[in-house]
Amino acid sequence: MQATIQWVKDVSFVGESGSGHALVMDGSPEYGGRNIGPRPMELLLIGLGGCASFDVVTILKKARQQVTDVRTELKAERADTIPAVFTTIHLHFVVTGKDLKESQVKKAVELSAEKYCSASAMLAAGGVKITHDFVIVQEA
Predict the structure, then answer these.
(1) What integer pLDDT is reported at residue 34 of this predicted model?
(2) With contact defined as beta carbons under 8 Å apart, do 134 and 106 qualify?
(3) Do 92 and 128 sit in the same domain of this protein?
(4) Which of 42, 56, 81, 114 maximizes the CB count within 10 A of its CB?
(5) 114 and 101 in one domain?
(6) What is the dihedral of CA 55, 57, 61, 63, to 10 degrees?
(7) How does DSSP assign 67-112, residue by residue?
(8) Residue 17 above 90 pLDDT?
């Protein structure tokens, strides 16, 4: 896996993934940014949410659950000192579908957290306390 980061101006950067996708990162105005893109630490949080969501969706589909939507809401706390690393992260999954079994959703969330999500494993190994919960929205 590869990535390239190109400085644009002030504290704005363009990151390009090895697969050819680009995005703008920027700092807050208090650090000289123009607020034209997410902060790098926000991208780490989004990456964790994407990794975990991917796992939950694929596990539920393999279990033949009729999942129609997964929304993952993340809340993180950071250390007050530099480096301001994440100290805690909570993932709240809102899983929507038809005739979803609670046991299958619980298993999917747990498998992601404990076995499959590389981002979660990496952050947890670095001392981040990661918790999760879920709610199920049954469609008629």
Answers:
(1) 95
(2) yes
(3) yes
(4) 56
(5) yes
(6) 60
(7) EEEEEEEEEEEE-SSSS--EEEEEEEEEEEEES--HHHHHHHHHHI
(8) yes
